[in-house]
Amino acid sequence: MQFKNIFKFHGGVHPNGNKSLSTSLPIGRLPIPKKLVLPLRQHVGRVAKLKVKPGDQVLKGQIIAEADGNVSASIHAPTSGKVLKISEEILPHPSGLPDFCITIEPDFKDTWIEKKPISWKKLDRTELIEALSQSGIVGLGGAVFPTHMKLRINQSQPINTLVINAAECEPFITCDDMLMRERADEIIQGALIAQTILGAKECVVGIENNKIEACEALKKAAQKTAIEIKVVPTVYPSGDAKRLIYLLMGIEVPKEKRSMDLGIQVFNVATVAAIYRYLELGEPSISRVVTITGAVKAPQNYEALFGTPLSELIIAAGGSPNKTKKFIMGGPMMGFDLPSIHVPVTKAMNCVIESSPELFPAPKPVMPCIRCARCADACPVNLQPQELYWFSKSSQLEKAKDYNLFDCIECGCCTYVCPSNIPLVQFYRYAKSEIIAQEKSKEAANTARERNEFRLARIEREKKERAERHAQKALGANEKQADDEKKSTIAAAMERVKQNQQENIKT
Amino acid sequence: MENRSPYIVDAPSVSVIMFKVLLALIPGIALYVYAFGLGVIINIFLASFTVILTESAILAIRKLPIKVFILDGSGLVAAWLLAISIPSIAPWWIIVLGTLLCISFGKHVYGGLGYNLFNPAMLGYAILLISFPLIMSQWQIPNNLIENNIDWLDQIKIIMNSSLLSKETIDAMSSATPLDYIKTQLTLHQPLNIIQQNKIFGFLGGKGLELISLGYLAGGLYLLKEKIISWHLPVAFLSSLFLISLIFYSIAPDTYASPLFHVMSGGSILCAFFIITDPVSGPTTPKGKIYFGIAIGLLVFIIRIFGGYPEGVAFAVLLMNIFVPLIDSLTQPRIFGHK
Amino acid sequence: MITALLVMIFLAVLLGLILGYSAIKFKVDGDPMVARIDAILPQTQCGQCGYPGCKPYATAIAKGEADINQCPPGGDTGAKALAELMGVEFKPLNQEHGLQKPKSVALIDESTCIGCTLCIQACPVDAILGAAKQMHTIIASECTGCELCLPPCPVDCITMEPVLENSQSWKWKYPVYNIQNTTGA
Amino acid sequence: MIQHYFLIIISTVLVNNIVLVKILGLCPFMGVSKKLETSISMSAATAFVLTIGSMTSWAINHYLLEPNDLIYLRTISFIVVIAGVVQFTEMLMEKNFPLLYQVLGIFLPLITTNCAVLGIPLLNAQSSQTLIESALFGFGGAIGFSIVLILFASLRERLDGAEIPTAFKGTAVALVTASIMSLAFMGFAGLDR
Q1: Which pTM value belongs to this model?
Q2: Does the complex come out with an ipTM higher than 0.85?
Q3: Which residues pair with A161 in a beta bridge?
C-alpha cells in the first residue's frame, strides 16, 4: 500500500494487533450495576470539589463534584440514585493505592436531570469553553487532560490544524475502532464543532491502515465536509499525539512544547464524540466505550457508565476461564496490572485485557545488556535506550537526565525488541520518578532554607530593636532576665534533644 | 503486583544471536580446513574446551548461574575468533593460554557478558603476539604448496608437541604471511612486483588465505541479512582501508600493495564482519559506528605499512575500543523534536 | 661550590619574587564552597550534626572542621554527594549523630495544647502557627521534621507522624530482576 | 625539519607515550580519572605546567647549569623550578577557576611530585635539544598525557555502570584497564622511524 504525504518517524515496532478478537460483536450496553464508585480524580489537574454528601439523592447527569479551577474536570452522576458514602477506594492506578471516591447506589429508574442542549452555533468561543468546563469531558484516549483547556487558544498562536487521533495503535484495543464504525457521524459532527471553536483552517483524521471498516464509515460520514481522512501505516506507536502529527504533517513537536504552540491541536475520536453529545444532546461525560478482551470468553466492546465495577464488565464478557484473574488496563505495550477486579471504570479506562500465560508469557530471565542497540533502532524518539538503561540501573540519574530521559514516552518499543529481556521501561519510570522526587525535596529544602534565614534575620533584628529600647529606657534589667530565661529554656531543650538522641543510640 | 509492560516481546535471545555468529563462521572455517588441513579445528576445539572450563570456574566463584552464561554463547564466539586468528600450527598451549587470558581479563574482570570494554578475542591475540612474537608469526603453508603433502596426523603432532617432528618437516610447513613477507622484503629494497611473485601469493591476497577471506565474507553477508550486524561497521571499515591503500598505491605502486590485496589479506574481512561488529565493545550510535570503522581501517593500514607489526587488526581494534565511550557520547543522534 | 650556591640562591630569589608578586595579584577572598555544600544539605535545620543549623555545618565542612557524614536526614546519599563535591572518600553516615528516619512531620494534639508558644520559638523554619494562650498548629507543608519542637513542649502534645505514600506522591520502584546478576562475591 | 618535528610529536604522543609506555605520572592518571570533566581540567593544568616547565628547565640547563659545569644540580634545580611553576598555576586557578581549584584539590599541588613533570625535562636535558625541540618534547608529552587521561576517564565513567566483581572494583579494574591500554599502544611501536 502506498501512503501519500506521510512522514515516517524513526523506529517503531509491529506487534501482532489481535484486534479482531473484540470487533466481531457491536458495542454492547451494560445493565446498571448495583453500585457505582466514582473517583474524584479521574483527570490530570486538581481534584474535583465535592458537591454532595452521603444520603443525597442525585439524578442522572447531575454534577456531583465540580471542577476546581481551570485545570480540572467535573464529575456527573452516571445514573439516578442515592449517594452512599464518600470514602477511600482502590483505583485503577499502577500504584494500587486508594483515593477518595463517591459511591452511588442506583435506584434503577435512570432518571435524567433536565438535559440542556447548547445551541453552540450562536455562542462565542469563551462562552462555549465556559459551558464545556461543566461537561466533565477529558481526553478519552488515555491522557485525561481536561478538554475545555485544550480548546482555549492563546492569541499569539492561532490553531491552523485540528488533528483527530483515530490511530489506536496499541494491540488488543478496539474501542475507538468500534466507535468509528458505529458512530462515525457523531465523531465527524464533534470534529466540526471542535474545529469551529478552535478556528482551525483544516481538520485531518489520522487512521491506521488496519481499520478498513472504520475508515470507510468515517469517509462516508465526512463526505460532504472538508475533513480529510488520512490513512497512516500501522506502526506502533503511531497513536502517540506527537508521532501522529509527524506522520501526518512532518512537524516535530519538541518535548518542552505542546502541539498547540505550533498551531496544531489533537483530539481523540471518543473525545470529539463526547463534545458532540454534550453540546447537541446535553449529555455530559458519564460513560465511555471500554474494550474487554484477552482471555475472557466473549471479548467485546461495552458502553459502560463511569464507576461500574470491573467485575460487572467481566461477567458481561462471559466471565474468565482463568484462575489467575489477572487483568491489564490499557494495551499490552503500555498498560499495567489492575490491583483488583473491583476497581471502577474511569474516564481513562479504554481497554481491559485478561492476561493468560498463553497471551502474555511470563518474562524470560533478564540477561545483561549487550549494547546491541536494537532498542535505539526501535525508539520512536531516537533516544539511546541502552545508555539510559545503563545510567538508570546504576542510579546515575544526572547522566540519565543529560541523555534526555525525560523525552522518553515510555512506549515500550525498546523492551519489545530487547534480546536480553531487560524491563527497560521500568528502569526509566523508576529514574524519572526518582528525579522528580529529588527535585521536589530540593525545592522543599530551598523553602526551608529561606524560611530559616528569614527567621534568623528576624531574631537578629528583634535583638537589635530590643537592645535599642533598652538603651533608651535604661531599665531593661527585667526584660533581659525574661529573655535569658527563654534562652535557657531553649538551650535546655536542645540539651534534652541531644540526650534523647544519645539514649536512642544506646537503645 | 508487577508492572512489567510491555507484556509482549519479539526479539531473538542473546544465545540465538551468538550462535548465529558461530554459524556464520562455518564457511570460512570449512575453507580453512580445505586449504590448510585440520589444524584450525583442533585449535577451535581446544579454545572451546578452555573457554567453557574457565567461564564455569569464574561463574562459580562469582556465584552466578553457570548454565545461563555459558549458553549465551558469547564466550564461544570470542574463543572461536581467537582460534581462527592465530597460526594453525601454533603449539596447543598458545591457544589455551590465549583463551584463558582473554576470557578472564578481557571479559570477567569487567563483570562478564555486556560489560567488557575491550574486544576479548583481540585482547587475547595482542597478548599472545607480544609475548610470543616468533610463534605467532610462523604460519602454515597451504597444503597444495608443500611438496610431500603432510597429513592431519602431522598437524596434531606439531600442535601437541613439535619435538615429535623433524625440523625439516616443520620448516617445510611454515612460512611468514604475505603481509609479513612484503614487510621484510621491502626493507631489503626489493620491488613489490618481484616480491609478489613468491609462491605464497595468490590471486588477490595470500594463497589459500584469500579463499578463507571469501568464506568469512559469505558468513558476514549472512549476518547482515539476518540483521545481527548493521552495515555501518563493515562498510566504513572496508571502504576506509580500501581508499587509503588506493591513495598510497596510486602514488607508489612499487612499494605499496594494491587496495584489493589489503582488503583480502590478513584479518581484514574477518575484522570487518566479525570482530569490530562485537556490540559490547563497539560504539552504538550509527554515526559512531561509521567513525569507528573508518578509524580502524586507517589504523590497520598505518600499522601494516609504517608500524613494527605485520598485521594491525588487533591493535587497531583495541586502540579504537579505548575511544568508544567518547565516540558514543559525542555522536548522539538528534532526538525527536530537538534541534 | 660557590657558583652552585649562587645559582641556587639566584633561582630561589627569582621564584620567590614571581610567586610573591602573583600571591598579591591573584589574591582570593571568600569561599564559594559553603553555598555549594549548603545546597546539598537537606535544610531540616535539625542540629543533629552538632551545629546550630545547616549553614553553620556547611561552613564547618568547608573549613575542614566537620566530617561529611554527620547529617542523618541527608543519609548515605547526602554523604556521597558531599564526598563527590569535596573530592574525598565516601564515608557511611556516622551513627553517633542519629539514624536516617523516614520523612515525618510534627502534629500537635490540639486538645492537649496549652498555648505556651515554646514550640514556636524552637521551630527553625517558622512552621508553627499560634499565639500565647491559644492553640498551636503545624503547617505540614513547611515542616522539615527536625523534631526540635518536641523537647520544649511542657505537655508533650506534639508527635511525629511519618509522611505516608499516597497516589500522588507514589513513585515507581527500582525494577526487580529475574536472575541475580549483581556481583556479590 | 618539519618532518623531524612531526616525528617528535608522534613519538612523544603515541609511540613513547609518557603514561602508557614510559609509565610515568601514574598518580594523577589513577587519581583524577574518575570523572571526565575533572580529567579534562587536570590535563589542561598538567599540559600547561609541562610545557612551561620544559621550557624554563631548558633555559636553566642551557644558560645556567651547563656553562657553569653544574650538571649535577639538574634534578634539584628542576624540582625547584617545577614547584614554582605549579605554585603559580595553583594561584592562577584559585583566582580564576575557584570551583575547578576545589575539585582538583590535592592533585593540583601534587603536579609537583608528578614524575612525568620532572621526567620530561630530565629526559629532555639528557638528549640536549634546542629550545623548540624541548618545547615540542614537553608539549608532546603533555598532549600524550592529556589524551590518555581523558580517554581513561571516559572508560572509567563507563565502568561506573558495570557489575565488576567486588575484588576488582575501583583501582584494581582501573589498573587492568590501564595495562590493556598500554598493550594497545604497543601497536604504535615502530611508527617513529
Answers
A1: 0.88
A2: yes
A3: A202, A264
